């Protein structure tokens, strides 16, 4: 009897030890100690810096196309002999590259699948190298006509450049999240994305600083930075660690374990536990893929979800985001704002602040209230800005008011950008989240291409010649956007997507029925 009791006690002790070990590993996974090491820092910096290319490219083109010497070198005098790009050249500079960005959002999946996250990065930098080669050796002697032809008119080069940047911006958050410990994963990706705004501010400051130069360096310096930085980042990428998750998916378990050990300070327990969890997640993902197809997002059960998932991303573009962003400096110059470049810097700063504040507002106040309030503000601000433009802005006070309202509109508009990401990830079912996100991103780019193509035809002298009056046109589109959001955007903060959708649809039908009865 004593022997059986002894065995029973040993069994219980073993069970306790095993459970204690599990709890200890779980605690180390979620709240690790001494997790920060050189490999983690190096990877976070290298991958995070790649997102800065998007921030720089997205911001600097607006001020760049207003630099007088750049306009004169690329095009010559415009309408009335002024150094202003015409509608055709603005389209080539701004709209054409977005085609590459749209293609990149689809190309990222087949590219990173066979060659991995690191390979996709190196391939993306490869698309940027033609620009680098044309710039190397010419910056010190002045950028020749060939370089300017590529920058301003060679659509294929610009498409390839934005194709590469699009791959980087799609792969970077995934790669970073797969390398970082669980407890800092969200913060690391968040800080990297926030870095886009910081680099955007730097881009605006660089162009503002070079605008004061009276020779060819006025545009050489911003272009040289755009062309040279990818070369440096490509070399740094060789030092980065390949994703252990991707290596596991290719059955390269030994290398996956080696990489994970170097990222986790050679903590064997934590490394093995993370890899085991990732293996289970990959298996579940493969099982989900076996039962779903990409085209399922368009079947009758998911069609409404898919449309609503992509709508906020496109709505943000159609509300005139490009007017205050991409073409903001152009409109400020046309409005007669003497310190247009300084205002552009403030605009990029408030856009960064708005993108940081937006997630807090959506989580605290809810998706619907914030979205409807923000678009109402955009409508009012667009109406006032368009109305001011019709006064020809002859008075200093009018120009100051126009600049101030542009800054406020930039802040409010930045809040709408987060809505597209939130809805695209929350509304679709879990198994269709990735294809739905691709759908939303693609149509966001399509809308961006359309708006950036149309705006030069509206605002440019020699075309529509509306200038800042174009704000009134986008006031109209924002009213339409507001109406659609009111009836179909669900409140997802509490998780009741279907209930909220049914409620809004019932209200819409009830309202329509009352209107029909009143008419009859």
From TrEMBL:
Residue span, Major facilitator superfamily (MFS) profile domain: 43-493
MF GO annotations: carbohydrate:proton symporter activity
Its membrane topology: Multi-pass membrane protein
Residues that span the membrane, as ranges: 36-56, 90-109, 189-209, 221-240, 318-337, 343-362, 369-390, 402-424, 436-459, 471-489
Classification via Pfam families: Sugar_tr
Stored InterPro entries: MFS_dom, MFS_sugar_transport-like, MFS_Sugar_Transporters, MFS_trans_sf
Cellular compartment(s): Membrane
GO cellular component, one term: membrane
Keywords annotated in UniProt: Membrane, Transmembrane, Transmembrane helix
Family: Belongs to the major facilitator superfamily. Sugar transporter (TC 2.A.1.1) family.
UniProt name for this protein: MFS general substrate transporter
Organism: Dacryopinax primogenitus (strain DJM 731) (Brown rot fungus)
Upper classification of the organism: Eukaryota, Fungi, Dikarya, Basidiomycota, Agaricomycotina
């Amino acid at each position: 009897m004593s022997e059986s009791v002894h065995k029973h006690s040993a069994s219980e002790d073993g069970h306790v030890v095993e459970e204690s070990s599990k709890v200890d590993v779980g605690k180390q996974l979620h709240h690790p100690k001494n997790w920060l090491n050189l490999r983690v820092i190096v990877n976070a910096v290298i991958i995070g810096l790649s997102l800065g290319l998007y921030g720089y490219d997205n911001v600097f083109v607006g001020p760049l196309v207003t630099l007088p010497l750049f306009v004169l070198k690329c095009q010559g005098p415009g309408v009335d002999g002024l150094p202003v790009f015409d509608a055709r050249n603005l389209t080539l500079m701004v709209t054409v590259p977005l085609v590459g960005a749209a293609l990149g959002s689809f190309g990222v999946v087949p590219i990173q699948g066979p060659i991995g996250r690191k390979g996709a990065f190196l391939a993306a930098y490869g698309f940027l190298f033609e620009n680098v080669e044309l710039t190397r050796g010419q910056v010190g002697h002045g950028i020749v006509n060939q370089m300017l032809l590529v920058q301003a008119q060679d659509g294929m080069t610009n498409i390839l450049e934005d194709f590469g940047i699009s791959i980087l911006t799609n792969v970077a958050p995934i790669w970073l999240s797969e390398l970082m410990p669980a407890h800092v994963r969200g913060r690391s990706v968040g800080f990297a994305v926030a870095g886009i705004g910081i680099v955007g501010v730097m881009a605006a400051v660089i162009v503002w600083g070079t605008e004061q130069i009276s020779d060819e360096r006025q545009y050489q310096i911003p272009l040289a930075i755009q062309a040279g930085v990818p070369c440096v980042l490509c070399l740094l990428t060789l030092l980065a660690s390949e994703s252990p998750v991707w290596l596991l998916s290719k059955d390269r378990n030994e290398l996956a374990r080696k990489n994970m050990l170097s990222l986790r300070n050679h903590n064997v327990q934590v490394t093995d536990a993370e890899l085991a969890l990732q293996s289970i997640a990959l298996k579940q993902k493969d099982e989900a893929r076996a039962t779903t197809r990409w085209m399922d997002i368009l079947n009758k059960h998911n069609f409404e979800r898919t449309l609503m998932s992509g709508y906020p991303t496109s709505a943000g573009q159609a509300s005139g985001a490009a007017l205050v962003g991409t073409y903001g400096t152009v409109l400020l110059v046309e409005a007669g704002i003497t310190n247009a470049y300084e205002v552009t810097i403030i605009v990029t700063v408030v856009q960064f602040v708005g993108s940081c504040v937006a997630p807090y507002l959506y989580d605290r106040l809810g998706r619907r209230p914030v979205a409807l309030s923000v678009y109402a503000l955009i409508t009012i601000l667009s109406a006032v800005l368009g109305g001011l433009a019709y006064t020809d802005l002859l008075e200093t006070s009018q120009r100051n008011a126009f600049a101030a309202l542009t800054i406020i509109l930039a802040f409010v508009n930045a809040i709408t950008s987060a809505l597209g990401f939130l809805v695209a990830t929350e509304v679709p079912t879990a198994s269709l989240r990735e294809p739905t996100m691709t759908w939303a991103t693609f149509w966001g780019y399509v809308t961006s291409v359309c708006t950036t193509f149309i705006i030069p035809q509206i605002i440019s002298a020699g075309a529509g010649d509306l200038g800042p009056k174009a704000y009134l046109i986008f006031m109209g589109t924002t009213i339409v956007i507001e109406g659609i959001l009111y009836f179909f955007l669900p409140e997802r903060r509490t998780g009741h997507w279907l209930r909220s959708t049914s409620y809004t649809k019932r209200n819409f039908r009830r309202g329509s029925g009352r209107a029909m009865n009143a008419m009859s």
